[in-house]
Amino acid sequence: MPDPIHQFDINRIIPIKIFGWDASFTNSSLFMVVAAVLTVGFIMVSMSGRSLVPNRMQSVSEISYEFIANMMRDAIGDGWQKFFPYVFTLFIFIFVCNMLGMIPGFFTVTSHIAVTAALALLVFTSVIIIGFAHNGLGFLKLFVPEGVPAAILPLVVVIEIISFLSRPLSHSIRLFANMLAGHITLKVFGGFVVMLLSAGGAVSFLAPLPIVAAVALTSLEVLVAFLQAYVFTMLTCMYLSDALHPGH
Amino acid sequence: MDAASAKLIGAGLAAIGMGFAAIGVGNLFGQFLQGALRNPSAADGQFGRLILGFAVTEALGIFALLIAFLLLFT
Question: Pick from A116, A123, A118: which is nearest to A234 by CA?
Answer without folding.
Answer: A123
